[in-house]
Write a structure and sequence with these properties.
Length: about 140
């Protein structure tokens, strides 16, 4: 069964920031130590990772939007979020007005992108963290 699972995930693209502690280059805007590092260590006796940083960013972004909108009404908050250029731990959160998704890339959220290769997570973007190259599926 383990071999079948391993074969099934070969070539899979993942965002490793969601599942592991990342090196300093993964936080170009606010490199460690970050505001949450000590809090996570104290509360959970563990190092803060990508999931903690995203949770922190998301809550900070929403609370900022509430404040800027001076309201909790959905339309007002959505408008404030679209106008926002919130800078969080992972980068700048700028939303696409057509589909309300956040922009990704070097000038926005430079999320590391990896691929499962030989059973390991290999980062191929951004350049600062490259551990290998993207391999197109056969």
């Amino acid at each position: 069964m383990r071999i079948l699972v391993s074969i099934a995930v070969l070539g899979l693209l993942i965002l490793p920031a969601q599942a592991q502690t990342l090196p300093e280059w993964a936080y170009p805007v606010n490199p460690p130590p970050r505001p949450i590092d000590d809090k996570v260590q104290k509360r959970f006796n563990a190092a803060a990772g990508g999931d903690h940083a995203y949770g922190y960013d998301c809550m900070s972004l929403v609370l900022t939007a509430f404040k800027e909108a001076a309201s909790i009404k959905p339309d007002a908050v959505a408008k404030a979020m679209l106008a926002s250029k919130f800078v969080g731990l992972h980068g700048k959160y700028v939303f696409n007005p057509k589909n309300h998704t956040v922009n990704f890339g070097p000038d926005f959220l430079p999320l590391p992108t990896a691929q499962i290769q030989n059973g390991k997570s290999v980062i191929f973007w951004p350049e600062a963290g490259v551990g290998g190259q993207y391999i197109a599926p056969k």
